[in-house]
Amino acid sequence: MSDDHDHHDGNADHELRVSKIQDGTVIDHVHGGQALNVLAILGIDGSEGEEVSIGMNVPSDRLARKDIVKVEGRELSQDEVDVLSLIAPDATINIVREYEVIEKHRVERPDVVEGVLSCPNRGCITTGDEPVTSRFEVLEDGVRCAYCETIVRDEIASLIETN
Amino acid sequence: MRHDHLITSKQLSRGDIETVLDRAAEIDADRAAVADRHAGKLLGLLFFEPSTRTKMSFETAMKRLGGDVVDMGSVESSSVKKGETLADTVRVIEGYTDALVLRHPKQGAATMASEFIDVPLLNAGDGAGHHPTQTLLDLYTIRENAGLDDLTIGIMGDLKYGRTVHSLAYALTNFDTSQHFISPESLQLPREVVYDLHQQQDAQIREHESLEEVLPSLDVLYVTRIQRERFPDEQEYQKVAGEYQIDSETLEAADDDLTVMHPLPRVDEIAPEIDETDHAAYFEQAHNGVPVRMALLDLLLSDAEGQGGETDE
Ligand SMILES: [Zn+2]
């Protein structure tokens, strides 16, 4: 990321705001203001004792303002990373072991996301008491419920299931 | 047909549609030939929403094939009232029957239900979603009256909430048709449906607020009901509803061969004076529900049998 401040071994200013982690995942280049949604989509609320640091609206050359999420002791699965793409399409994922970034990759948009978003259509069968997992097809510019076919383009983050 | 379930008209190819319509025509021509074809078979009718017409048409179709139906009865008198899920209901009734017909007020209900069962499921309407068997009988009627290629069709009325309209529009993209959608602005096609229609290559779609400008070019005019309850006040409704009513004066501008359809019941969208003219195809359309549903059931039940080793064809 030559085009950006590197918060691991570069700009000391940023280092103070978001501390280094020993083992885990750094989710970088999240659009400003989306950090909490990133945690929601990953189902991280701190109740499991995870150590989480968040930097919000940190200056970035690439995004002007970006958020950074660092999760200690947890390496994200590819599924989780894919789902992140819905709200953080430019995110980079850094897997850290012993303070070193050992893997770095961009998120990719999946074809389908299951059990992550809840349908905003109150007439949709998935919004009742049925034993069904929500499923959304990922479109170029949004997501679409596989059951009622409702298309959501904006505010995808507001559909994140919270339970 | 290749499909185990019929959930939406989107899943139907031109070949699928022609298979069903051809079979329906055969059955229509000689009903006696299929009178015992599915003797001993049972069709489960699960209507979570009242629909006398669609239900009776399925019941008639199954009985004319020599089979029988079991009916869940009204929702009020069933275990659904006690809070049983749809997923549980279909899994139980699947064990009693050879195929299921589902009408449900929630969109996506048929898709979900089909994921829980192995017997064929026919979607007879899921909320504002789909109604593919209506579409097939509409197509059958259009084919009989005007043909399905080189067709100019106007679809008019409540295009926003009309699931029969959406299903028909998708299916027509399989054919060489130009579709004109005529409605008040507030009842235009949902953007999702327009999105889907534009995904189809070569789909020719135009939207209008007035019937006048397209009427003379139409081969078929498919009229749907504008429901009073969609409007905030009676005056708004009256203003709009009047503009989308058909009478003999309206049809003076139309081609002599224009076919007028309506998925009934109607209220006052089509004046009774049209009933006696050659334009009127809506009662014929309603009657076509039986041979078309017979054809569908025959294809699905024969397929299911074929998988078990028996042969039918
Ligand atoms: Zn939905």
Automatic annotation (TrEMBL), chain A:
The keyword DNA-binding does not apply. Pfam families: PyrI (PF01948), PyrI_C (PF02748). GO terms for biological process: 'de novo' pyrimidine nucleobase biosynthetic process; pyrimidine nucleotide biosynthetic process. GO terms for molecular function: metal ion binding; transferase activity. InterPro entries: Asp_carbamoyltransf_reg_N, Asp_carbamoylTrfase_reg, Asp_carbamoyltrfase_reg_C, Asp_carbatrfase_reg_C_sf, Asp_carbatrfase_reg_N_sf. Contains catalytic and regulatory chains. This is Aspartate carbamoyltransferase regulatory chain. It comes from Halopiger aswanensis. The gene is pyrI.
From TrEMBL, chain B:
L-aspartate binds at residues 82, 163, 225. It is an enzyme of class 2 (transferase). Residues 5-144 form the Aspartate/ornithine carbamoyltransferase carbamoyl-P binding domain. Residues 150-299 form the Aspartate/ornithine carbamoyltransferase Asp/Orn-binding domain. Carbamoyl phosphate binds at residues 53-54, 103, 131, 134, 264-265. GO terms for biological process: 'de novo' pyrimidine nucleobase biosynthetic process; 'de novo' UMP biosynthetic process; amino acid metabolic process. One of its GO terms (cellular component) is cytosol. Pathway: Pyrimidine metabolism; UMP biosynthesis via de novo pathway; (S)-dihydroorotate from bicarbonate: step 2/3. Keywords: Pyrimidine biosynthesis, Transferase. The keyword Magnesium does not apply. It catalyses: carbamoyl phosphate + L-aspartate = N-carbamoyl-L-aspartate + phosphate + H(+). Its EC number is 2.1.3.2. One of its GO terms (molecular function) is aspartate carbamoyltransferase activity. Catalyzes the condensation of carbamoyl phosphate and aspartate to form carbamoyl aspartate and inorganic phosphate, the committed step in the de novo pyrimidine nucleotide biosynthesis pathway. Belongs to the aspartate/ornithine carbamoyltransferase superfamily. ATCase family. Heterooligomer of catalytic and regulatory chains. This is Aspartate carbamoyltransferase. It comes from Halopiger aswanensis.
